Amino acid sequence: QGQRDAFIQRQKDLQRTVDYLLTRDDIDPERLAYFGISSGANAGSAATAIEDRFAVSILVAGGLIPNPDLPEIHAPNFAPRVRVPTLLISGRQDFMIPYEASQRPLFEFLGTPEEHKALKVFEAGHVPDSRDIIRESNAWLDRYLGPVRR
After folding, report:
1. Mean pLDDT over residues 66-74, rounded?
2. Residue 43 counted as domain residue
3. pLDDT in tens, 83-113
4. CA–CA separation, 93 and 22 (whole Å)
5. Sign of the torsion formed by the C-alpha atoms of 99, 105, 107 and 108
6. What is the mean pLDDT of residues 33-40?
7. How many other CB atoms sit within 10 Å of the CB of residue 53?
8. Which of 74, 140, 64 is nearest to 102 (CA)?
9. Which of 10, 86, 101, 122 is the 20 to 30 A CA-CA neighbour of 20?
10. Using CA atoms, how far apart are residues 15 and 95, in angstroms rounded to an integer?
11. How many other CB atoms are there within 10 angstroms of residue 2's CB atom?
């Protein structure tokens, strides 16, 4: 019950955050991106399946964490509903979120069309080098949202 309630609260908090962002004149509502690392990436499939105001998603060091006893938070129930362009950035030697058992299955479960999802795997542990994350993330955001406006 506690895990379920925390999951629901996280989604509500995220939706309220997006509500707030969209009240600001300096935020383009057509260019919102979800970016999550580790547990934030694990939550990303649900977040982008439920919250349809994100245009793109980047998930770093996340994976498919099954929870079949709680269907409300069971990751395979959400990942197929994700439709936004999604980039997964992973470390092949991640012992927390194993590549073959968790990261790759998340990529395969995503409902995003094949041409709009990518899995970048680095010879790294749980979180790849920040330079790799920044380079891949910026390229993904430029591709789907256009270059940063100044």
Report:
1. 78
2. yes
3. 999 999 999 999 998 888 899 999 999 999 9
4. 38
5. positive
6. 94
7. 15
8. 64
9. 86
10. 31
11. 6
Terminal-to-terminal C-alpha distance of the chain: 46
State the pairing for strand pair 33-37/86-91: unpaired
**Domain count along the chain:** 1
Q: What domain range includes position 65? A: 2-145
Higher pLDDT, 78 or 33: 33
Q: Is 137 a domain residue?
A: yes
Residue carrying structure tokens 């080098």:
129
In the chain the beta strands, taken as DSSP E runs, fall at 33-37, 56-60, 86-91, 117-122
3-class DSSP state of 89: strand
Quick one: 130 exposed, middle or buried, by C-beta within 10 A (0-12, 13-18, 19+)? Answer: exposed
